[in-house]
Each structure stands twice: as structure tokens, then as C-alpha cells.
Amino acid sequence: MTRSLVIKVTAGAEAPERTNQAFTVAAAAVASGVTVSLWLTGEAAWFSVPGKAEEFPALPHAAPIPDLLQVILSAGRVTLCTQCAARRGLTEDDLIEGVRIAGAPAFVEEITRDGVQALVY
Predict the structure, then answer these.
(1) Domain layout of the chain by residue ranges
(2) For residue 93, what are the contacts with CB-CB under 8 A and spacing of at least 6?
(3) DSSP labels for 80-121?
(4) What DSSP state is assigned to residue 22?
(5) Span 4-120 CATH architecture
(6) What is the bridge-based pairing of β-strands 99-102 and 116-120?
(7) What does the pLDDT look like over 67-114, one tens digit per residue?
(8) Which residue, 86, 91, 95, 101, has fewest beta-carbon neighbours within 10 Å?
(9) CA distances to 32, 70, 91, 109 from 96, in Å
(10) What is the pTM of this model?
(11) pLDDT in tens, 27-42
């Protein structure tokens, strides 16, 4: 059975440690061969826009968010919440290459598959 992990990130710059933890866990899972799906919701939606991850404050003893995001995009899936995108006026044309927009039905489908673990940050 393939190991899969779905991570939903709800925080952004207002909660830097929690945000960085989510990206760190996702990147570590990708590096371990786990199938990863990272969902960007709430203030984390901004990480789907080019250049926004680079604005995130560096944390001591933590890998930078832009580096982690590149690892995740290299072998995982990154999804921006449909409602979160709409509230911020974002369309697929505004996003980093490889990020898709999808809604709650897609999230529910992913987290209810056999063998999937889900985390929310």
C-alpha cells in the first residue's frame, strides 16, 4: 500500500512556527517517499503566489519556506482552497506553476482514501 499524507495549512505569517512546521513535515514526508498533498487555506493561501514565500520571516533552526515549498512541488501536490482563492481574488493565472485550485469535495476525497493520514496546522 502506498503511504499518503494530506496536510492542511491554515496559518501564515501570524503563526510562523506552526506554518513552518507544516511545510517541514510535508517536505520531510516527500523526502521519505511518502505521497504528499499540501492544502493551502486561510492565510496560507498567499504561499501559492510567486514571491510570497520569500517574504516569510526566517526562523532560527528552520529551513526557509521557499526551499521547503520547492521540495514539496518537486514530488507532491499543492492545492489552494477554492474559497480562499476567491476571497483573495486569486485565479490559476496568479499562482506558482504546479499549484492547483480545488475545493472541499476534493479535500474530502483525498482524506477518506484508505491508507491516508491527514494533519491540520
Answers:
(1) 4-120
(2) none
(3) EEHHHHHHTT--GGGSPTTEEEE-HHHHHHHHTSTTEEEEE-
(4) H
(5) 3-Layer(aba) Sandwich (3.40)
(6) unpaired
(7) 999 999 999 999 999 999 999 999 999 999 999 999 999 999 999 998
(8) 91
(9) 24, 10, 11, 24
(10) 0.95
(11) 999 999 999 999 999 9
